[in-house]
Write a structure and sequence with these properties.
Blueprint: H1 8-34, H2 36-43, H3 47-51, H4 53-74, H5 78-95, H6 101-127, H7 135-164, H8 166-174, H9 176-184, H10 198-203, H11 205-209, H12 212-220, H13 223-252, H14 258-288, H15 294-315, H16 319-335, H17 337-347, H18 353-369, H19 371-382, H20 385-388, H21 391-418
Helix pairs in contact: 1-6, 1-7, 1-8, 1-9, 1-13, 4-6, 4-18, 5-6, 5-8, 5-9, 6-18, 7-8, 7-14, 7-17, 13-14, 13-17, 13-18, 13-19, 13-21, 14-15, 14-16, 15-16, 15-17, 15-21
């Protein structure tokens, strides 16, 4: 671990490499959504079985995240990230070699071990590379890779599957990570809290000598942290269900051709994700300099506005209705990505930051996108996919309301402390 702050050039290099990893991370996650029809035909799978492919990954991912979070708060941060990227890349390649459903399910589950290391530790590492005032934009850049990677997952998965078969889609998603794993080992790893004021370091001193279990228990008891995470879980429930089932919804319910459903939705996600995440990060930093809890106020309002747009996307019967609904819903949802991640990181102290991110990841997946694809698939098997996806706008509205409540409660708590 370095004993000095990284240079601006080294900090930007770290952001670039970790953003590239995040892009491959989400390409790997969403390549499955693009090949759902091919997997269904090739292995004669039900929608419920297909719905389990995401929870299998997520269950392992969220269980492994706390272990990596504790490692990231106490030891090297670059080595566990590199190990994680290597493991998930190899697991993705092996998914492409699966001969039956249990092998495929196992391959997707092992991916979760590798991705847990990166997702738990990378935000904490970047917090020590950049100042507090820049974090909304830093996390916006990092998280712009989410929509771009997810969209590339749809596009790469759809094109590779159409021309070379579904196995080639997994191979294309897994190989780039092998090179990125080596690049991580050359990144700076500055001292924890190097960008914080002395007061913040003092508040985090207790975490330095605490056991990992004590740190996690303390975070669970911290209301300002947990209420934000609960809102994030509802957000992830809606967004995860929409991301997994939308291409299949367009093909099955709206009768859009398969190639158009995957690549068209992917193109929408790329544009709205890039613009929405960048704009949201910039606006979040702008408002945060002028008002306390602005990250939460902004995220809550924007997410609440996304709910009726998502409803239009799912109920609109013609392309003139459902495509504008998809565009607006995705744009608004992605605008909260940078600010809400900055809010979570800023609530935690520097010496517990990786643990806080890991606990957040555990909670949002346990309550969010682990159950949502499975639940939507199960309801679809019982009734119809068109009815099942209407769960999504409800979850999005709940997320917006919870974040607005959190902003109000945390603002009043800050006023009482100031008094």
């Amino acid at each position: 671990m370095s004993t000095a702050n990284p240079t601006p050039r080294a900090a930007l290099w770290a952001l670039g490499v970790l953003t590239a990893i995040n892009l491959i991370n989400y390409l790997d996650r969403y390549v499955v959504s693009a090949i759902v029809p091919d997997l269904k035909r090739a292995m004669a799978l039900s929608d419920t079985q297909l719905g389990w492919l995401v929870p299998a990954f997520m269950l392992v991912y969220m269980i492994a995240a706390p272990a990596f979070g504790a490692w990231g708060d106490r030891g090297s941060r670059t080595r566990p990230i590199a190990l994680g990227v290597l493991v998930w890349s190899l697991a993705t390649v092996l998914s492409g070699l699966a001969r039956n459903y249990p092998q495929l399910l196992a391959g997707r589950a092992v991916v979760g071990i590798g991705e847990a290391a990166y997702v738990a530790i990378a935000p904490a590492l970047l917090a020590d590379c950049f100042t507090l005032e820049a974090r909304g934009r830093v996390y916006a850049v990092l998280n712009m890779a989410i929509p771009v990677g997810a969209a590339l997952g749809y596009i790469v998965g759809g094109l590779m599957s159409a021309h070379f078969g579904w196995r080639a889609a997994f191979l294309a998603a897994g190989v780039p990570g092998l090179l990125l794993a080596l690049m991580v080992l050359r990144l700076p790893d500055p001292p924890r809290g190097s960008q914080e004021e002395r007061a913040a370091l003092g508040r985090g001193a207790a975490a330095a000598g605490a056991s990992p279990l004590a740190v996690y228990v303390g975070l669970l008891r911290r209301w300002p942290f947990m209420v934000v995470v609960l809102g994030y879980a509802a957000y992830t429930f809606g967004l995860g269900g929409l991301a997994f089932w939308m291409p299949t919804f367009l093909e099955r319910v709206r009768h859009v051709p398969h190639a158009e459903a995957t690549t068209g939705f992917g193109a929408i996600v790329i544009v709205t994700g890039f613009l929405g995440t960048f704009l949201g990060g910039w606006l979040g930093d702008y408002f945060q300099r002028r008002r306390r809890q602005a990250y939460l106020w902004f995220s809550g309002l924007i997410t609440l506005l996304a709910a009726p747009c998502a409803l239009l996307a799912l109920l609109g019967a013609t392309p003139a209705l459902y495509y504008p609904g998809i565009v607006l819903a995705e744009l608004l949802l992605f605008m909260s990505t940078g600010p809400i991640n900055a809010a979570i990181v800023n609530i935690a102290t520097p010496l517990e930051r990786a643990s806080a991110v890991a606990l957040s990841m555990f909670a949002i997946h346990l309550l969010g996108d682990v159950p949502s694809p499975l639940l939507i698939g199960w309801v679809s098997d019982l009734s119809s996919l068109g009815g099942a996806v209407l769960i999504v706008p409800v979850a999005v509205a709940v997320a917006g309301l919870v974040w607005l409540i959190a902003a109000r409660v945390n603002s009043r708590a800050g006023e009482l402390r100031a008094a």
